[in-house]
Specification:
Four copies of one chain form a homotetramer. By secondary structure, chain A is an alpha/beta fold. Chain A has one domain: Aldolase class I (TIM Barrel). Chain A has ten helices and eight strands. Chain A has an eight-stranded parallel sheet. In chain A, strand 4, helix 4 and strand 5 form a beta-alpha-beta unit. The termini of chain A are far apart. In chain A, about 60% of the residues are buried. At the A-B interface, helix 2 and helix 3 of A face helix 2 and helix 3 of B.
Chain lengths: ~230, ~230, ~230, ~230
């Protein structure tokens, strides 16, 4: 297992999705850039690569690794599942759950959170609205990422287009559960987007194409990290 | 990528499922046993470990590696998917699809087969009955594994309890598609089970707990391989 | 459309599921018994028959009718869906959602609630635990029915086996949302079960086999209604 | 139960989907038009209305009624399911299965067909390609409707845009199973579309918006029926 650094806030969590630009060797390169920038600026950058890339990146870097999904079933006769055990064995320290591209049943969210907690895998639960974020915060994930689905991959950032979604999420969620960390996502492409998200109360961002499909991912990551140190 | 040996028939395909006994380091050990026995007896043994174990085993062995599932979508915004690209990148040469623990929609089976073919990933489609096997053979997978679900994990082998399922599958499928290879599975625990499957016309077996949860997996694998060389 | 009586609490909501005993003509007979007992004892009894039975019962009785499920999509190209429009047209005044036998994704629950609200269809959201009940109450359904799945159909009532589930649900949910009505369910077969549920703070019960598969459904319904009038 | 006329070929099967234009009272009106035109021209016209409309139309007309979906489970604890029993009780004589808007797992298709056969409910299985049609024909449904999904609702008929899909489907399916009746669908809006479908070997059409969303459904149905009598 790798010596992944602990999660610190504000957090930049980069979802590699299944983009061609962030697979295999290219995933490792981006991971290494994240590691360098993280060290240079003192800002925590975690990544969620494709499942098979997790163990390779875990061995080669100290970047905190998230899975993009986890199944709730215990080890056994569950062909094709992503077990929490295999994620930990592979070096992941957390998992995204209920992403808009991978929505889950409410009872499955609850069961998966319980499994993750019992094995100390951190959880970042996605929600499409601030109200759903509030609802899910009751199940006590480590993080809630509120992402209006219509802005995902749009290049129009939630902090510009719908700043209220962020401030409202912070208010609605923190009121019930101060321990849950709130990320915001969707359409984030500039350091300014990141900075204003944090100004609105978010404790970090969940970003994907804005980094992975950028012409210069290193440059963007640096811009993101800088925008957080200034604060 | 690893230098995986090509698939030969009769084939022993070992599905590691998500058993605790076949995760991480233990997966690698079983893979290494498979490699040795395969070389010693000249019988092809392929394995389907958990997703995250694929790249590690690919680097350490020449065992032909299958995934337990693959998604049909092309690389892109598909958080949590298992792409065919990532399987190939990780060193897999094939994938199980539509296992009884991971059944798929008929249009998804068709789309996934097309994706796998376009990237030369071999496909082992599971079917619960000989008639469904015949139906799926029309979509031209490389292999069809017929497994009566009620016998999976039962310790009662299909070759003993329902030999007709095997011979009928062979007849119904080969009549339509001579190129598809027929495996049989469910409840296989002894060399005798393997031998009689092949006598009934199967070109190999799909086995899971019979090997993975055995007290002595090496011994069982050896018994399986021997039973095929005798023929 | 029928002249369904309005919902009053305490409420007895009888889920007909797809039992043979509550299909077609037999559904209508049970509905008529519900109507009579409801009038006689002044206790509101609503029923959730199979989809196709709704319009027939709506024409023949004034029993408040719930659907067992509703889909969130608006009218259009959605072959096989149960639209909210068709439920209202057929005479339903409400719907059960997220039953343990028909669990839904969290975003689908949210979208379906929004559709139901916009067309004034009442909603009874099921939850397997008090915490999930609390979580779902934030989405503002009309009712939350908390049912430990392991007790459903068991004949062991939640009010006996897990009274804390009821009192805790009441506390956790009402604290956040006083407007949501709390039903409890699972294993309820006697008037005593109903009475103690209400004593623990529930505003009614969700019951299925306890009525539908009883030798004498009329007798059981009467026992239930009586137990609520005594209070 | 209604005295539904038996299915005859060539068949016009009108899928009402969940269109607003074919709900409730409007569904009944279209059903009555179908009945009249069917009698006048001697062409069999069947309809698949929304679930709740089935019993009402069954009582008022002799139009052969299909469901838009059916679940495979037997009567029991299956909240929200559409049982084959309830369809028969409600007056349906058949069901569409695996529509592109309601795709099913291959094992579920098999199980549902078995249930429908055991209770003599006719089955119209949808397929997106001629090859999938051939594959599904092995499971012996009564009808296969081949519909290229990209043409559904497009107004561009399969008989014009992809005539090969029809002739190829007929060849591939009839070669294996002469008893299965082949419908074609997607984009059919004129009598010419219907006529050329039948000339290419189809035994009928599956049509939805072409009738339901037409300004004058009666006129279109008449045009369809006429085009089949001329032959």
């Amino acid at each position: 297992m790798n010596m992944a650094k602990p999660i610190k806030y504000p957090l930049i969590l980069v979802n590699f999705k299944t983009y061609f630009e962030s697979l295999g060797g290219r995933a490792l390169l981006i991971a290494q850039e994240c590691e360098k920038i993280s060290e240079e600026y003192g800002i925590c950058i975690a990544i969620a690569p494709q499942h098979l890339d997790i163990p390779v990146i875990a061995k080669a870097t100290s970047v905190p690794l998230f899975s993009q999904h986890a199944d709730w079933e215990v080890p056994g006769a569950h062909t094709g599942n992503i077990t929490v055990e295999s994620l930990i064995e592979g070096g992941a320290i957390g998992t995204i759950l209920n992403h808009s591209e991978h929505r889950l049943r409410i009872d499955v969210i609850d069961a998966t959170l319980a499994r993750c907690k019992s094995l100390h895998l951190q959880t970042c639960l996605c929600a499409n609205t601030s109200l759903i974020g509030r609802s899910l915060s009751i199940l006590e994930p480590d993080m809630i990422a509120v992402e209006p689905p219509e802005l995902i991959g749009s290049g129009i950032s939630v902090s510009k287009a719908k700043p209220d979604v962020i401030s409202e999420s912070v208010r609605l969620i923190k009121e019930l559960n101060k321990n849950v960390h709130i990320l915001c996502g969707a359409g984030i492409t500039t350091g300014e987007d990141v900075a204003s998200s944090v100004k609105l109360g978010a404790e970090g961002v969940l970003v994907a194409s804005g980094v992975v499909k950028a012409k210069n991912p290193r440059g963007i990551l640096e811009e993101f990290a800088k925008s957080l140190t200034v604060q």
